[in-house]
Specification:
about 240 residues; alpha+beta; Alpha-Beta Plaits; three-stranded antiparallel sheet; 8 helices; globular
């Protein structure tokens, strides 16, 4: 806004901050955009990477809606983790590619956040092979979990299920996010969103994916695998 802007300029610039304009945007403008420019939900997990260093310390942000959304249901989930925590941690240790992992209850969701090396599919396959029978007690408490039980006999279905519940990771660069939208909408190759404003592509993507991971996260020493860290610290296997 310039120093010699008129009252009309100031009024127009202030419109986006008013409750009326925000209501119009939320209930009319954004749904209109969504109909005109359909945006499908993006797949969960980190994007495919060609650089070896980009395949180390990858994040999994698994969000699993609980069947029972009452305090009793959340207590059952906490108890299921507590009763099997030693076996779960031993299994993660035996997988060998996991840097960190933790379980969190956020509202009515049981979440598992982990950092691992390598391919997502191999990570989940190794996880099932080591502690699938133990983790079944946790999956049984989650919406849609019964369809993949027992996990040891439904490995491929479980991998697809985990992938569907893994948060979509927004690219670290806003330009990469815009490029991901091109196959799904009518943007021309030379058309760009104004990154100094709130891009429409970002609004529509967050409408399609309400739960997202903001970028790939901070990674200390991303060029070192879990195996190298264990070797240098003398932890071993």
């Amino acid at each position: 806004m310039t120093a010699n802007s008129t009252w009309l300029d100031r009024w127009v610039d202030g419109l986006p901050k008013t409750m009326f304009f925000q209501w119009i945007a939320d209930h009319l403008i954004v749904p209109y955009w969504a109909r005109r420019t359909p945006v499908p939900p993006q797949a969960g997990g980190p994007p495919l990477a060609m650089q070896p260093g980009d395949n180390m310390q990858r994040m999994m942000n698994l969000v699993m809606p609980l069947k029972d959304k009452s305090p009793i249901g959340r207590a059952k989930a906490a108890l299921a983790i507590a009763q099997n925590i030693d076996e779960i941690y031993a299994g993660l240790d035996n997988v060998g590619t996991v840097h960190t992992a933790r379980f969190v209850i956020v509202e009515n969701n049981l979440c598992m956040f982990s950092v691992y090396d390598g391919d997502f599919t191999n990570y989940i396959r190794d996880f099932v092979a080591t502690i699938g029978n133990v983790f079944d007690a946790v999956v049984a408490l989650v919406e849609g979990g019964d369809a993949v039980l027992p996990t040891e006999k439904n490995v491929d279905a479980f991998i697809a299920w985990v992938h569907a519940h893994d948060m979509y990771q927004i690219p670290d660069l806003a330009t990469d996010l815009i490029e991901q939208q091109r196959p799904a909408n009518t943007m021309k190759p030379d058309e760009q969103d104004d990154l100094t404003l709130l891009p429409r592509s970002l609004i529509l993507q967050l409408r399609a994916n309400p739960n997202v991971s903001l970028g790939s996260g901070y990674r200390n020493y991303p060029g070192f695998s879990a195996a190298q860290v264990r070797h240098h610290t003398g932890v071993g296997w």
